[in-house]
Write a structure and sequence with these properties.
It is a single chain. The protein is of the alpha/beta class. The chain has helices spanning about 5-15, 25-30, 35-40, 65, 75-90, 110-120, 180-190, 255-260, 305-315, 365-375, 395-405; strands at about 60, 95-100, 125-130, 135, 150-155, 155, 170-175, 195-200, 210-215, 220-225, 230-235, 240-245, 270, 295-300, 325-330, 355-360, 380-385, 415-420. It is about 25% helix and about 20% strand. The strands form 3 sheets. Strands 1-2-3-5-7-8-10-12-13-14-15-16-17-18 form a 14-stranded parallel beta sheet. The protein has a two-stranded parallel sheet with strand order 4-6. It has a two-stranded parallel sheet with strand order 9-11. It is elongated and about 75 Å long. Residues about 1-15 have low confidence and may be disordered. This is F-box/FBD/LRR-repeat protein At1g13570-like.
Length: about 425
């Protein structure tokens, strides 16, 4: 046992608590780098650390928080208890709050939490609720969070009060399976005058129109029914991603593709997961104008569908300055007979440097497309070919071997097979 005098000497020479003596903003930065559970656990270090976590301006309550050591989710009562403790003990501003409630669970204090955040300067708010038949209606206090700059909502019912004028500081908005009328959604977007990034996952507005007026919008990701989107004003839009989200569809019987693209004077990056539906012969050969600003194109097309091929060719012909192109073959039906289609000879890709082709089977039409791009791309540096199905990998690899000896327009073009 250590003599008493040695104990005294030891206690006098122990270094001070360096962490506790750091400025509060530095301690907050350290705690915010930790998972929320670990940040709360620092309260057992000493009396001085007991309430350090209570002043954090950024809190993340996601799956990592709700998961037990046995990889099970907390019960609803435990989730509610944690939220309640935050409301009771937290002091100071909360500028960022992320709440992701796990599936088959709920939280009975969401309205209280939103009211609390509306009084504490919330700027970045993520509310992801489990998918259920009855979306949670946002309380009136939500529409008083006027300092919001980043907002993500999932599975909520949004009904703004009549006096609501929008979030005039919002920069990014993401809505996933949110229940809101098309009129209110259009109004909400148009009143976010600083909005730069918009993400919409919507699949139930097949017969309605959502108007997009966003003068500062730079990127737009949309999943759902493209017939319900009318982009009236987005002069700065640089990045556009359209996908069917597995439940929606693109196009209508008479869908005006020319009108849709005529306002995209700044568009550089276009990703189309599925092409716009049209009757054979209705699709124009090309747009009546060139979109020279488009540099990257990602497109999924069924090469066995004449209407889809026509739509794809219409777009490709209209992007004369394209530098990167990725084409994925959508047809995975082994019963479809191989055939040849008329691919265009009136187009040259003078700026195309890299192509990625994602094929299903190494068929004749896929070979046609690859050869066409090699012949019409004098600046091509590399063509990447990938098989999206294990069943067709050997045939696709054989196609690549044949293309390596094919004489294209660019003597530097390299054809590379990619294993998925």
């Amino acid at each position: 046992m250590m003599p008493p005098e040695d104990k005294k000497h030891c206690s006098q020479t122990l270094p001070p608590d360096v962490l506790s003596n750091l400025p509060e903003y530095v301690i907050d930065s350290i705690l915010m780098c930790l998972p929320f559970k670990d940040a709360v656990r620092t309260s057992v270090l000493s009396n001085n650390w007991r309430y350090k976590w209570c002043g954090l301006p950024e809190l993340t309550l996601d799956e990592a928080v709700w998961t037990t050591k046995k990889n099970l989710f907390f019960h609803t009562a435990e989730i509610t208890k944690i939220i309640s403790h935050i409301l009771i003990f937290h002091a100071g501003a909360i500028t960022k709050f992320i709440l992701c409630v796990p599936k088959s669970r709920s939280c009975h204090m969401i309205d209280d939490l939103i009211y609390f955040l509306s009084k504490n300067g919330i700027q970045h708010f993520v509310l992801e609720l489990p998918f259920r038949d009855d979306p949670h209606k946002l309380p009136s206090s939500f529409f008083k969070c006027l300092q919001l700059r980043h907002l993500t909502l999932q599975k909520c019912l949004v009904i703004p009060p009549p006096a609501f004028k929008g979030f005039d500081r919002l920069i990014r908005l993401e809505l996933c399976e949110v229940t809101i009328s098309s009129e209110l959604l259009g109004s909400l977007i148009s009143h976010c005058l600083l909005l730069e990034h918009l993400v919409l996952h919507i699949a139930d507005y097949y017969s309605k129109v959502i108007e997009i007026n966003a003068p500062r919008l730079r990127s737009f990701y949309f999943a759902g029914s493209i017939r319900s989107i009318l982009i009236k004003s987005a002069p700065l839009l640089e990045k556009l991603l359209l996908t069917d989200n597995e439940t929606g569809y693109f196009g209508a019987e008479k869908w005006d593709i020319v009108k849709f693209f005529e306002s995209f004077s700044a568009l550089e990056h276009l990703c189309v997961n599925m092409l716009f539906a049209a009757e054979v012969g209705e699709m124009p050969t090309r747009l009546p104008f060139d979109l020279s600003c488009v540099k990257q194109l990602y497109i999924t097309v069924d090469l066995y569908d004449s209407a889809e091929v026509s739509c794809a060719l219409c777009l490709i012909r209209s992007f004369p300055c394209i530098q990167y192109m990725e084409i994925q073959e959508a047809c995975c039906n082994d019963s479809v007979a191989d055939h040849r289609v008329e691919l265009p000879s009136d187009v040259t890709f003078n700026h195309l440097k890299e192509v990625k082709l994602i094929f299903t089977s190494g068929s004749i039409i896929e070979m046609q497309l690859a050869k066409l791009l090699l012949v019409k791309s004098p600046a091509l540096v590399r063509m990447l070919i990938e098989s999206c199905r294990a069943k067709g990998t050997a045939t696709v690899k054989k196609l690549v071997d044949e293309l390596t000896t094919f004489q294209g327009a660019s003597p530097e073009a390299e054809v590379v097979f990619i294993k998925r």
